[in-house]
Amino acid sequence: MADQPLVKVTIDNITIEVPAGTTILNAARKIGGDVAPPTMCYYSKLEDSGGKCRTCLVEVSKGSDKDPRPMPKLVASCRTAVMDGMEVKNITSQRVITARKGVVEFLLINHPLDCPICDQAGECDLQDLSYGHGEEGTRTEFRRRTFEKHTLGNQIQLHMTRCILCYRCVLVADQLTKTRQHGVLDRGDRAEIATYIEKSLDNDFIGNVIDVCPVGALTDRTFRFKNRVWFTKPVDAHRNCSKCCGEVRLWMRGDEVFRVTTRRDIWNEVATASDGKTGWICNECRFEKKKVSDWVIEGPTKVNRKSVISANKYVAATKPDEFLEEVMKGVKPRFMLDIHNESEVNEPELRLDLIDGPAHSNDFKIADEAHNKKLLNGSE
Amino acid sequence: MKKLLLEKDHIEGIRFYETYRREGGYKSVEKALKMSPAEVVDEVKKSGLRGRGGAGFPTGLKWSFIAKPEGVPRHLICNADESEPGTFKDRYLMEFIPHLLVEGLIISSYALGSNVTYIYIRGEYAWIVDILEQAIAEAKNNGWLGKNILGSGFDCEIYVHRGSGAYICGEETALIESLEGKRGNPRIKPPFPAVKGLWQRPTVVNNVESIAAVVPIINMGGDEYAKIGVGKSTGTKLISACGNINKPGVYEIDMTISVEEFIYSDEYCGGIPNGKRLKACIPGGSSVPILPANLLLKTAKGETRYMNYESLSDGGFATGSMMGSGGFIVFDEDQCIVRHTYTLSRFYWHESCGQCSPCREGTGWMEKILKNIEYGKGKMKDIDLLWHVQSNIEGNTICPLGDAAAWPVAAAIRHFRDEFEWHVLNPEESQRRNFGLAHYADPLIPIGELV
What is the DSSP string of B247-300? Predict the structure, then answer.
């Protein structure tokens, strides 16, 4: 990519230079934050993925410098390459927001919404998507489509009812393993991921389908119903493995390892390992090494503070990128919190995160005195 | 008018090589092989021939887009997966004059440099496969196919491939996937087939009628062909007329006649049986918007509507429709639009490939809502909901099937909203009568408030 000429693209009023041939989505991800469209099927580590879920639709308001005509339809940003001088609207376009709400609604009308008993809850892309981009309430009163549950071998559970048909697991089996035993059968809303004649999936790398699944359709049977995701805390660890990179994330509660997964980057995709390759892990690391003594612990994983996994005073919570001010051309967005800032009634000179346990009125006393003094000094 | 495609369809034995050749067949191949491929493309460009499969994209332009990298074979595919409800023109052509298609394919393959050409035919046309294969064998035995055709140094083979009964495989990239032996899911464009198509090679996919029309174009010359018809709608078009008319069938028209003449003249549809009145019509196959009688015969501006690409789409989707693939479906005053729309939406729900979410989930949802309305369980808000669902599908899908599913529903609500409301307000009566409200859209009543 280094020899590719750079092209300028403006996404939501933020201009960035990217190599020619980059997709709009990857350009937006370079900016980061809310500017990057949500994705359900695109997976940068898998070839030929994307274009199916239609959640990453964006509006191209100017095709390029050479041909400034806007594109008539919304385009899938994961499969559309940027042109020099292209102008893209994502969160600034009402059309995009409406279309995305529509797509979220479509994805949810047949989804069972069994989050309370779903192992994926808490790290589910569909949950995040519907909170972030969906609409409250449902307009469908019909029976939801259901499928039988299938066990694909000892380790993988398939809940076809929850599937959104992103095809990621099919691509993983195509690109990572020697033979693919599962695929998509039937068509339309009857389409299902299946092995046709009941088979178990037992390739060395097939466990990765669990990690790429954006919903709870493919889950880890060794972790099934053992714990909620947000009660376990992620820890980065590694071991010497002859088959894979051996760099994993352990999900621990106390000293117990409940689950082993690949490491994820901020887009919830498998992260690149230290050897520069994609950090897929083998079934042995994933399903069989469930003792702390098997692993060399590196430290707690950084988790976005918006995620439910960072709950309970998590030590490694990180602040997400925010670009709203730039997107709105320098106008600061007003949040509920701003009211408190302006009215100055609730501005304790006290760091609540430093207090051990819940705050009491006694804790505020010292701060209040300092505050009052300041007010008095100000009036003098 | 002079017929170009169906000129000889009444001749006994035209299906077989001897008769076809005696009647002047394969002359165009002799002529075309003396020209250079670029000259053949130029002739087609000059003719102004528009794709007959539905989208109406100029065929010559499509051919000139094909990439020509060194050492990479190119392919021509004939799209005979004619699955649109209401369209059956290609079947007629292939069944009665198969050699016309073979002849057109040889010229087109020569123009595009395709040495291996495929006919992708829908699986339901099982008996036509035999007819085509026989025609291809006859052509090969007589030296029109195979190696070094007529000493020109051009090799060409034609293979017939049967689909397995999927509407979606009529979409060109899904067709290519299916031909490659994969699941018939449309590909995400770009890259377009002209750059990377069948087996990642440059490919052109053309409708049966477009390919057959190349034969008269070469015979008479592109300029001469362009004189037939009107404006950008040049040449002749096959229309498969069905529904409530006296003479259903396949007609060749020269796109200068009015819609009224087409429906009522004895030469074509011969009017509506039992003295009933015209209620509505789908002028171009089930996917295009339905038009009520008042907007069908005259445009919103009050001009006469003609059977050609421009006139039928006059007024956009608000008051117009599309030429589409030429499946002309006529409804008389006794037909129920709600039931019809439900039938169509059930078709699109059944045929959606399930790849992208708006179409996979939306078509099923529309089908369920329409089923409720048709069987007297609908609510008033369902009509608005239906409108929202179709607008969320339209334009947001990978391939045009999403649009094709959304347009008929949108047009039905746009023009016949009162009929939907009648179904909701009279649930018992609409169930008892089983045909719902037979409502006559009087051409004298001005167009109602558009949704």
Answer: S-EEEEE-S-SBHHHHHHSTTTT---GGGPPEEEEETTSTTSPPEEHHHHHB-T
Q: B256: exposed, middle or buried (C-beta count within 10 Å: 0-12, 13-18, 19+)?
A: middle
B191 preceded by a cis bond (ω within 30 of 0): yes
Q: B166 contacts in A (CB within 8 Å)?
A: 187
What residue type is A42 in one-letter code?
A: Y
Q: Where in chain A is the domain with CATH 3.10.20.740?
A: 6-103
Q: Quick check: A353 and A310 in contact, CB under 8 A? A: no
* Fold designation for A110-137+144-224: Alpha-Beta Plaits (3.30.70)
What is the architecture, at CATH level 2, of domain B233-332? Answer: Roll (3.10)
Query: Class assignment of domain B337-433?
Result: mainly alpha
Q: Which of B188, B361, B392 sits opposite A99 (nearest CB)?
A: B392
- What are the boundaries of each domain within chain B? 17-227, 233-332, 337-433
- Predicted confidence band at A3 (pLDDT cuts at 50, 70, 90)? low
The Cα of A124 is separated from the nearest Cα of chain B by a number of Å equal to 18
Q: Taking residues B131-159, what's their average pLDDT?
A: 91
Asked if residues B360 and B304 have their Cβ atoms less than 8 Å apart, the reply is no
Least CB-CB distance to B357: which of A79, A81, A164?
Answer: A164
Residues 6+ apart with CB under 8 A from B141: none
Q: Which of residues 100-129 of A touch B (CB under 8 A)?
A: 102-103, 105-107, 109-110
CA dist., res. A325 & res. B106, Å (int): 62
Q: A347 pLDDT exceeds 50?
A: yes
Inter-chain CB proximity A188 and B166 less than 8 Å: no
pLDDT category, A266, cuts 50, 70, 90?
A: confident
Beta strands in chain A (DSSP E): 6-11, 14-19, 57-62, 75-76, 86-89, 149-152, 156-159, 183-185, 192-194, 218-220, 233-238, 247-253, 256-262, 296-300, 303-304, 317-318
Picking from B253, B321, B250, B254, the residue whose alpha carbon sits closest to that of residue B292 is B321
Please count the CA atoms within 13 angstroms of the CA of A377 that sit on its side-chain side: 6
Identify all chain A residues contacting B354, using CB atoms and an 8 Å cutoff: 165, 184, 186-191
- Secondary element (H or E) of residue B80: strand B74-80
Domains B17-227 and B233-332 share a fold: no
A-B contacts (CB, under 8 Å): 96
Which residues in chain B have Cβ-Cβ distances shorter than 8 Å to A167?
Answer: 355
3-state secondary structure of B126: helix
Query: What DSSP letter does each residue of A313-367 carry, written as one string?
Result: T-TTEEPPP--HHHHTTTPPP--HHHHHHHH-SS--SS-GGGSSSS--HHHHHHH
Mutate to test the interface with A, among B171, B185, B353, B357 (most CBs of A within 10 A): B357
Least confident interval from A277-281, A348-352, A357-361: A348-352
- Could you report the per-residue pLDDT of B322-332, keeping only the tens digit for each? 888 989 999 98
**Domain boundaries for CATH 3.30.70.20 within chain A:** 110-137+144-224
Where does A6-103 sit in CATH, by number?
A: 3.10.20.740
CATH homologous superfamily for B17-227?
Answer: NADH-ubiquinone oxidoreductase 51kDa subunit (3.40.50.11540)
Please give the structure tokens belonging to residue B6. 């169906």
Residue among B349, B356, B361 whose CB faces A109 most closely:
B361
What are the angstrom distances between the C-alpha of B56 and each of A174, A360, B43, B135, B209?
A: 38, 75, 18, 28, 12
Q: What is the ipTM of this complex?
A: 0.87
Q: Where residue B439 falls among pLDDT bands split at 50, 70, 90?
A: very low
What percent of chain B lies above the pLDDT cut of 90?
A: 51
Q: Which residues fall within 8 angstroms of residue B329, CB to CB, at 6 or more apart?
A: B85, B86, B242, B243, B281, B282, B286
